[in-house]
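Journal club prep, notes for RB
We'll compare a predicted complex against what the paper describes. Inputs for the nicotinamide-adenine-dinucleotide case:
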Amino acid sequence: MLFGAGRAAELPDVVGALGARPFVCTGGQPARHAALIGLLPGARLVHPVTDEPTVEAARLAVTAARAHRADAVVAIGGGSVLDLGKAVAALLGNGTDPLDHLEVVGRGLPFAQPSAPFVAVPTTAGTGAEVTANAVLSVPSAGLKASLRGPSLLPRVALVDPLLTLGCPPAVTASSGLDALTQCLEPFVSSFANPVTDALASEGLRRAGRALRAAYTDGANVAARTDMALCSLLGGMSLANAKLGAVHGFAGVVGGMVDVPHGVACAALLVPVVELNIRAATEPGAAAAAGSGAGSGAGSGAGSVVLERYASAARLLTGRPEATVADLVSWLRETVAQLGVRGLGAFGLSAAHADEVAAKAAGASSMRGNPVALSTAQLREVFTAAL
Ligand SMILES: NC(=O)c1ccc[n+]([C@@H]2O[C@H](COP(=O)([O-])OP(=O)(O)OC[C@H]3O[C@@H](n4cnc5c(N)ncnc54)[C@H](O)[C@@H]3O)[C@@H](O)[C@H]2O)c1
């Protein structure tokens, strides 16, 4: 991991050490990073990624990379670009269809061979995909998003330069920033949390608490952008080791059904999920979901461990030592409102979708990290509140 303002200047050397024919994925406006891309060595091919990636987009991109005889992959962009690049690097090494390896929807086969060397350069502060071992692809025919996953998907180098995020407009800062925050909060309360992920996630929460609103209000605030880039990186490391929770369990489902940006989906679901988890943890005999971290000791005491986690998160986000779980909900609600994120109803979803969404979300891999087990009725309730 290379982290710090101005470190993007090291990209040419990093790439030059890995390959002579890089396949360069970037966003729908390649001109945005033309200066950086122009410095890359060797015979490069630039591939624009215009949307959150689908299985078909990954197939087309790997075909283009093979035709180019690419020996390395570089992704400069948001999570969509990083995930597509990651998928291409994995498939270049394995030469197969994404559906052979995709979880949930595909065959889920492990990757037998290493990926092509892959360098991830995020330009949003949100997904942490530069340090995770999965690539999310959507499968429109199944109405779902699912992951390619395996240790070989970890990028060879994550080069995180907060200055690359300065151009993010407020809406992207809001949605990606709330995703980053959620990716620290969910592993922090996850039933798979451990002391290492606790250290990473709590530092991410502390930084999001002091910087998210500031980065949204003043996009040129380098200190706030740096905090959020670090929050995103820490969230990626946390989720890769402690899993996520119900927010991401739902986000993959709704993102596969309608065209809603991932971060917006997370933001809309955040308060309803936290409120319900707190309420469920307060009930006598609260049952922990699978795992052994925050929710450990299912039965007596499981709920109180979860509540203490949420109270710690409240203190980290608000910076107030006396903050309670109620303050956490208020702070999150205010932040989502202040950042102007719309509910899921603005994207064509309605109460009529509640049964379908709840059934699909129950089977999502992220749901396993949720600190309390939620019933189908409770999942329907969360979805309806997120509309
Ligand atoms: N692999 C993982 O671990 C992981 C984790 C979370 C989310 N994801 C995936 O990541 C994707 C979302 O990524 P995202 O939230 O970064 O959004 P994104 O990559 O889709 O980008 C959102 C918008 O911001 C623009 N943009 C990006 N950088 C910019 C910049 N510096 N200046 C101006 N505009 C910029 C993009 O062109 C795009 O229009 C989803 O597909 C989601 O499923 C992956």
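Talking point for the session: Residues 2-165 form a domain with the Rossmann fold fold (CATH 3.40.50.1970).
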